[in-house]
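User: dTDP-4-dehydrorhamnose 3,5-epimerase. Structure?
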Amino acid sequence: MNVRIDDFRTETTAIDGLVVVRMKQIHDERGTIREFFRASAMADAGLHAGPWQQLNLTETSHGALRGLHGEAMTKLVSVVRGSVFGAYVDARPGSPTVGAVVTVPIEVGVQVLVPQGVLNGFQSTSEGTSQYLYCFDQEWRPGMAGSAISPLDPELAIAWPVPVDPENRSQLSAKDAAAPMLAEILAAS
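Assistant: Predicted structure:
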């Protein structure tokens, strides 16, 4: 049997604390076994992740965009089916990387650890739909501290891979289309 092992590894990004994680995967003729989460591997890499208090799964159509949202919680995000284009913006006042933007193509086996206050958004790039999994270290509740900004903020210069029509509600929610720009959020903080 031909076996290939992809070991656990991490990649730092231009946003302080935002880390791309590639979990261990074992491939053979039968398919693939993927570790979705291993606390000891994360701890050995110096990453604080979990314990997870809530997991959400979204099913998102091709070209649809969700975000950019940032709550007072750490998130581990990935896809369990399909692929997405992830975008992250540091909106934390006082952060050494405030204003930084990072994009990450996410497919099965790729995760992003998103620290509290970093805005998270994604666009489904799969034909059909993608399934995007969020792991939260706190339960979401109405009124929870957080912020949202427009994913179409021209100052961010995010090159969404599928053109976005801000009037198309199957592609962008009214709430996300009406969200303020990053400069407005930072000026108010």
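The CA atoms of residues 55 and 150 lie 24 Å apart. The longest strand covers residues 54-61.
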